[in-house]
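Hi P.,

Sorry for the delay on this. The queue was packed all week, but I finally got your sequence through. Input first:
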Amino acid sequence: MIESLSWRWFRAILPICFICFLYISAFHLFICATNSLIYSTLCLIHANQSFCSEIDHNKSLRALQTSIQKESSQWSLYGTLSFGIIACFISPIYGSLSDTKNRKLPIILTISNAIITGVIITIGSIFRGTKTSLLLYIIASIINGFGGGTLILLSSCFGYVSDICIEKEQHVQAIAIIEASLHLGTEYCSSLVFLKSRSITNSSSINLWSKVKRPFLDTRDLIIDLKHNKLLTSFVILLLSLFFYEFFRMGSSSIYYLYLHRMSFNDTQYATYFTCEQIATCLALICLALLRKRWKINDLYLCIIGLCLSLIGPILFAFASHNKAMIFGAIPSMMFGIFFPVCLRAVLAHLVPARDK
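Then the structure:
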């Protein structure tokens, strides 16, 4: 009987894990594809195909490359805002649907919306090189906002497995398995991006081999250049710092969900909390841009500030069992925690030689 219950429990969460795996993989591929589409479209608007194929390799074109990159960043910001503003209002609504109607409904709506968004972006790629492509990107971002994004999917999936788990141990195990599927999806997407070749000139077998060995050759060249510039030790220390930070932060969303679930938060309150946190993070990134541009504060100092503030949030969570308001009080500290990974990546980017970027 116990084996039968365990098997039914496993069969119930397996489709959820598969959905999360595919969605997070598609999400990261979507970001890479849309950024590439925006950049190539703007490049073709300002120049022709042969010029755009050389712009990343010709150092004499660095000024124009920077100009196109800045314009691409602006369009990416427009798309992010189009998505974020709508998602902020939609998230509590979908959270309420998950609580009152059906756990599966927000999952279906989010996935359907993601498919429609992908179709619009695919149509936009047909018009690559024209402003129609950029307009379709903004439209796709707006439509994607009505799906609520990753937050709604995860909260609905967590809520779904919470309902089918009878024991507390099963609840924790189910959340951990879903979190693992998310990280597997991220790694799968990263491997696909690594296998993207820089040029397609050889036969399929040779091209596949070049795709496989390209990351290792790039890593070797980077190590040689860093050693030549006497920056290898600094680079390794900072890279390990980022690795351990991201490693310990893995699964934080699941831990917060379990904690809020224990605090009797329903999916509506959960969505509201993380919506507020996402808005606060966006404000923190805007604040970061102002700090770096206007006051010229060193990135390492901002890293230290972000690391210290990111520790305050979990401390407030620990005391929130006696005062629920402290959970929302953790948002200001955690919003500035984004400073650490963002600024540390900027420092690492500055250490990398220009020809390896």
